[in-house]
Amino acid sequence: MAWRVVERRLGKAGGEKQRTTRQREWDRKYGEDRWAIGYVMDGEFVRQDEALESVYYRSYELHFAAHPEDLAALIDLARVLRNPHAEATTGVDLQVPAITDYLQRHGLSLRGREVVDIGTWHGGASHPLSVRLSPLTIRCAADPERSLEQFWQERKCLAVWDDAPPRRGA
């Protein structure tokens, strides 16, 4: 029994309505609780919720270790973090929770006065730091040749739980 990848390159999750429509289709096609979104890493399927830690959070952790000036600027400048793209499109916000988790785990808090965008929307950003901390520019911990956004979108796949016994000779 194992996860079997059935679709690759799923692309962006989209807005709430689009995500719900796709998920209902997968429920009909594969059965509820029998499919998952994730990534193949080191030859194994890793569910997306697990990859949030090993890929998304870890990418920001590595970025802040390599660029402590970005972390210091964020702490000094920001009162609140927001993802303008997710707000505008009802898309999934991963970068703000990853950064917030990082701050909490390291006993840090924001001391600034501004709302700081993490990422951009239609080319606009609240601060140059918004671009530097965008998943479009953060290097991916699982594949440093790609940005976090490239990895997250290009490597995303759909897997189904396959409880059929392995075939003989396979």
Task: Looking at this protein, list some descriptive labels.
170 residues; alpha+beta; two-stranded parallel ribbon
Q: Would you count the extended β strands for me?
A: 6
Largest sheet, described in full?
4 strands, antiparallel
Q: Ranges with pLDDT <50 over ≥5 residues?
A: none
Class from secondary-structure proportions: alpha+beta
Count of individual helical segments = 7
Q: What share of the residues does DSSP label as strand, in percent?
A: 15-25%
Strand order of the largest sheet: 1-6-2-3
Mean pLDDT: 90
Instruction: Provide the succession of SSEs.
Output: EHEEHHEHHEHHE
Domains counted in the coordinates: how many? 1
**Cα separation of the termini:** 14 Å
Shape: globular
Radius of gyration from the alpha-carbon trace, in angstroms: 18 Å
Helix amount: 40-55%
Give a structural overview.
- A four-stranded antiparallel sheet has the order 1-6-2-3. It has a two-stranded parallel ribbon with strand order 4-5.
- The protein is globular.
- It has helices at 16-30, 48-66, 68-77, 84-89, 95-105, 128-132, 148-154, and strands at residues 2-8, 35-41, 44-47, 78-82, 114-117, 157-162.
- The relative contact order is 0.21.
- α2 crosses α3 and α2 (48-66) packs across α5 (95-105).
- It is an alpha+beta fold.
- The chain has seven helices and six strands.
- β2 and β3 (44-47) form a beta hairpin.
- The protein has one domain (2-162).
